[in-house]
Amino acid sequence: MHKEFSQAVAEKIGYYVYLLKDPRNNTIFYIGKGKGNRVFNHINCEIEDATNNDKLTLIKDIGNDNVERYILRHNLTEEQAFEIESACIDLLGLENLSNKVLGHDAWERGLKSIDEMVQHYDAKPITIDEPAIIIKINRLYVRNMSEIDLYYATRHKWKVGLNRKKVKYAIAAYKGLVREVYTIEGWTKCDDGRFEFFDQVAPIDIRMKYNNKSLENYIKKGAQNPFQYVNI
C-alpha cells in the first residue's frame, strides 16, 4: 500500500480532489482538496492538531491502513479544486460526512432549493443593532426541519466564553441567511464544559427585522468558527 506519492507524481498531478472511504460499508466519509501528499496526511495524522474530531476518530476506528483513498479529479487549478470539493460536499450532504464545514463559497454559491435561491438573491443585507451571537448551523441544518429541531440545533453545545453573558439574541444562520432569532434568557453549562442557552423565539418585530435576511456583512468567506459575537 502506498504511503505517499513520489515527488515526480506529486508534481504531475497538481491540485486534486480526493475522498476517503470506509471499506466496511463502502461509505464516503470525507471529501477534500489538496496537492502533494495531502490525501495521505489525514491518515498519518500529520495535519491534525491535538483536538480530536469526527474524521480522526473514524480513521482510527477503521484503521489507518484500511481507509480507502481515491483521487476524484486531478491536474486542477486551486480554484477548480475548491469548486469540485464544494459541489461534492453539497451533493453528499455535510450531515453524512466528517467534514467540519461546507466547501469553498458554499454559503454563497452552493446547493440551494428554488426557494433558497430566491431568498438568497432577494435577501436584503441586515445591520444588527442588538448584542447578538450568530450561530452557523450549516452542519446541523436540514431543509424543512421542524421549529423544535431548528431550536435544538441552534441552542447547544458551544465553546462560548464570558461574552455570552452580554448577548441578548441568538441568530440561527444557514448558508448566509438568518433562519430564526431567539431571545437568550441564560446559559447552562453542559457536562463537557460547553454551554447551551435557554430561550424563547424572539418578539415578532425582531423576527421580521432579521429572518430570511442576508448576513453577508457579518459572515466572512472561509471563516470556520461556528459562531461570532456582534455588538459585544
From TrEMBL:
Residue intervals of the GIY-YIG domain: 13-100
Domain of life of the native organism: Bacteria
Pfam families attached to this UniProt entry: LEM-3_GIY-YIG (PF22945)
UniProt-recorded name of the protein: GIY-YIG domain-containing protein
Taxon lineage: Bacteria, Pseudomonadati, Bacteroidota, Sphingobacteriia, Sphingobacteriales
